[in-house]
Specification:
Elements lengths: L1 E7 L3 E7 L7 H48 L7 H13 L6 E8 L4 E7 L5 E6 L4 H9 L3 E3 L2 H6 L12 E7 L2 E7 L7 H15 L1
Antiparallel strand pairs: 1-2, 3-4, 3-8, 4-5, 6-7, 7-8
Helix pairs in contact: 1-2, 1-5
Length: 207
């Protein structure tokens, strides 16, 4: 029978209703307007905090990218890829939750890749893998990330060989000579934002 609304700029309105006619007097109007003002102020503060958080996160990413870029520029021989992958591990750990990461240098003609992988303890495993998974081949040929969210999707790519951990999700992001990869023991572990961060690192490698 009665409806009282106060606007929430950019968000909609705050409304109260009653089963009775003419239920709301001037005091009720002032109270609803007061609450609407408080909600609007709170929402604006939340947006400000979110903007600040994004700015701080962007700065962290830029600093991490520069550290990896510096490590790449210091490379003098092929063995220095091990230092790059450790640097990649250290910087990505501050930004994304994962279990292992690798830099995979792909040879499409020979259908093989050289693996530099690091996990807990920062020990680097390396060596030729003489079988190129469909996931790496697809990433290199399309220039797009290949995300396997669970073991079933990994099976489709014939990519279920485990390393030091039982991988339940893995994503490869291509750069000019191979891919950056991260994996997790959890299914569907990586968000769109995580993959976007990984793509930023790949861009550094392609410079």
């Amino acid at each position: 029978q009665s409806l009282l609304e106060a606007p929430l700029p950019g968000e909609g309105s705050l409304g109260v209703n009653s089963l009775h006619r003419n239920a709301f007097g001037p005091e009720a109007v002032r109270t609803v307007q007061l609450f609407a003002g408080l909600i609007t102020e709170g929402l604006q503060r939340l947006r400000d905090f979110e903007a600040l958080g994004w700015a701080e996160q962007s700065l962290k990413i830029e600093v991490a990218l520069q550290r990896v870029r510096n490590q790449v520029l210091q490379m003098e021989r092929e063995e220095d890829w091990g230092k790059v992958v450790v640097c990649f591990w250290e910087e990505m750990k501050e930004l994304v939750e994962f279990d292992e990461c690798s830099i995979d240098l792909v040879d499409l003609q020979q259908e093989r890749f050289f693996l530099y992988q690091v996990g807990e303890g920062e020990m680097v495993q390396k060596g030729w893998i003489h079988a190129l998974p469909r996931s790496l081949k697809q990433a290199m040929e399309t220039g797009k990330p290949v995300y396997r969210r669970n073991r079933e999707e990994m099976e489709r790519y014939r990519d279920t060989a485990d390393t030091l951990v039982r991988r339940c999700s893995v994503v490869d992001v291509p750069f000019s000579g191979g891919t950056f990869a991260i994996n997790s023991t959890k299914e569907d572990a990586f968000s769109v934002r995580d993959i976007q961060v990984l793509e930023r690192f790949a861009q550094v490698m392609s410079e």
